[in-house]
Amino acid sequence: MATKLFVGNLPHSTTDATLGEFVTNAGFQVASAVVIRDKMTGTPRGFGFVELGEGEDIQRAIAGLNGQSLEGRPLTVNEARPPRTDFARPRGGGGRDGFRRRRDY
Hints:
Layout: E1 4-8, H1 16-25, E2 30-37, E3 44-52, H2 58-65, E4 69-70, E5 73-74, E6 76-79
Antiparallel strand pairs: 1-3, 1-6, 2-3, 4-5
């Protein structure tokens, strides 16, 4: 059973601790809270993930948190999807048949 929430539309001043406190104050037990940051700049990207504690009902948490306001911004809360592992790979281009053609000059 999934126990991880996606939380979107976070203010950029939100930290991991702030997100965890917000969900805890809403009446849910939090195992972990992470705000996703840009790899290059380290600035928050505006979304994060919250892992609920044992026995918490994810549907009740979604209903209770979705649309709630954090620092004046209405949050979007959904069940977190598993990370993608099937990324599209770039393919070689060229001719009409999709294969590169060697040219002899």
